[in-house]
Design goal:
Low-confidence stretches: none
Distance between the termini: 42 Å
Helix content: 10-25%
Radius of gyration: 24 Å
Structural class: alpha+beta
Largest sheet: 6 strands, antiparallel
Mean pLDDT: 96
Strand order of the largest sheet: 3-2-1-4-5-6
Oligomer: single chain
């Protein structure tokens, strides 16, 4: 696939907009080149490169809308897509919450493209796999990993004069290392926009060290413990909370931010004063598109939590209009402030506690309180007098991110967390948290 530049993409969107006979029209073009290598049992199993490009056109007649998708870009195919969307719109029922196409926006470009990442080739991917496999064999371990890199572009326009074009690169990597008898397991994840910030050897050594250290795990009685949670252990847990700042859900009594009488908890102090969380499309570590794909509103730096207080809620265009508020773009990333200490320094300052490398299989128990259940895995360790004493059998936990962020003792140096398992690109610190609720044991490694 030859990626479209801004000029080429605009010619196509202009053509589609000119073809439409509807009251309004919105066009989006996306293209990607995604390379990957997957390995298991210390051997590459698959590798490949996929390329794709498609155009989405949405039209509306009054409050009736229709959408069509096409992956051919000649004039005949473009016109066919527009006519199909118009046919569907005329057949559709009226949407009582329909919002017309937005007015022209000003999009401030973000640094989402790095040439070094775009230049990743099969040799680069092979070297990632070879590095991990070689280190595993030296340590008599078995590895399974997945490395994926992508180069993408996105263009969107509407009949009100909105236009935006953005290029992207990113990479993500996960690795599991296990002992040959399956009694020890370690895991690591890495994510970056810039390939220069990725070191396969460094990442592999983390997983390998955890795998070697987790053999002969001992059982510890479930209960409430001080825990040191690595960023990967909290990413999905906190992701559930970050996705729940919707003002409508709060106003309608359906979220942890609801109050009696149809009110919400904007301005209330819900967390420890150390907690500061924001979204910023121009963040140097996790930059994202300057617009929200759903609404096409321009993104802004937004403070969600300030010194433990709820600083803002997310208003869709419909709910903002209904409540007399200002509509906000959906966030593409989440950044949580941390401290300056490394994970090792947090451990060194802990008298008794448990280190959790990773959590998984997380499920919602109670949306109103955000109570979640899940399991630890791939490296859980007991700490005493500032040192890791021995590995532990894994636990099931029942806990809410609201409680976790209320029980913070100390925060460490933040780290980039991304990939398919989390809803946003994130920057999160390791956390030392008291009274974390482990409810039972798990025999899985």
């Amino acid at each position: 696939m030859k990626a479209l530049n801004q000029e080429q993409a605009k010619r196509i969107t202009d053509r589609v907009l000119a073809l439409s006979k509807a009251d309004e029209c919105t066009v989006a073009i996306e293209g990607s080149r995604v390379g990957n290598v997957r390995f298991a049992r210390n051997s590459v199993s698959t590798a490949g490169l996929t390329e794709d490009m498609q155009l989405n056109v949405r039209v509306a007649f009054g409050k009736r809308s229709g959408t069509a998708v096409v992956n051919e870009f000649d004039d005949k195919s473009l016109e066919k897509a527009v006519r199909r969307a118009e046919e569907l719109a005329k057949l559709a029922p009226e949407n009582p919450e329909f919002m017309p196409a937005i007015a022209k926006q000003e999009y401030r470009a973000t640094t989402t493209f790095v040439p070094k990442t775009a230049a990743i080739d099969p040799d680069f991917r092979a070297e990632v796999a070879a590095t991990c496999i070689e280190l595993a064999r030296k340590n008599k371990l078995v590895t399974a990993g997945y490395f994926v890199d992508s180069t993408r572009f996105a263009t969107m326009a509407n009949s009100n004069g909105v236009f935006g074009h953005q290029d992207f690169t990113d990479l993500s990597f996960t690795l599991t290392a296990r002992t040959e008898d399956g009694r020890g397991s370690g895991w690591v994840t890495r994510s970056a926009v810039d390939a220069a910030r990725f070191d396969a050897r460094e990442a592999a050594e983390v997983a390998i060290e955890k795998a070697l250290r987790s053999v002969e795990a001992r059982a510890l009685e479930p209960g409430r413990y001080t825990v040191i949670l690595e960023p990967a252990a909290t990413s999905e847990i906190l992701g559930n909370m970050f996705s729940a700042f919707d003002a409508r859900s709060a106003d309608e009594g359906r979220s942890f931010l609801s109050k009696a009488g149809g009110k919400n908890r904007l301005g209330d102090k819900l967390f420890d004063s150390q907690v500061n969380i924001w979204a910023d499309p121009w963040d140097k570590d996790v930059p994202v598109a300057p617009w929200d794909n759903e609404s096409l509103l321009a993104r802004e730096r937004t403070q969600l939590v300030k010194d433990g207080r709820i600083a803002s809620l997310d208003y869709s265009r419909y709910w903002a209009q209904k409540t007399g508020k200002r509509a906000t773009a959906g966030h593409g990333n989440m950044i949580m402030e941390g401290g300056s200490k490394s994970l090792e320094e947090l451990i060194a300052g802990t008298k008794k506690g448990i280190v959790v490398t990773r959590t998984w299989y997380i499920r919602m128990v109670d949306p109103q309180s955000l109570l979640l259940t899940g399991l630890t895995r791939d490296g859980t360790f007991y700490v005493e007098n500032g040192k890791i004493k021995y590995p532990l059998k894994n636990f099931r936990f029942n806990e809410s991110p609201v409680t976790i962020l209320n029980n913070i003792d100390e925060l460490g140096k933040p780290q980039i967390i991304g990939g398919d398992e989390v809803p946003f690109q994130m920057v999160l610190p390791p956390m030392k948290v008291r009274d974390f609720n482990f409810t039972s044991l798990s025999d899985a490694v």
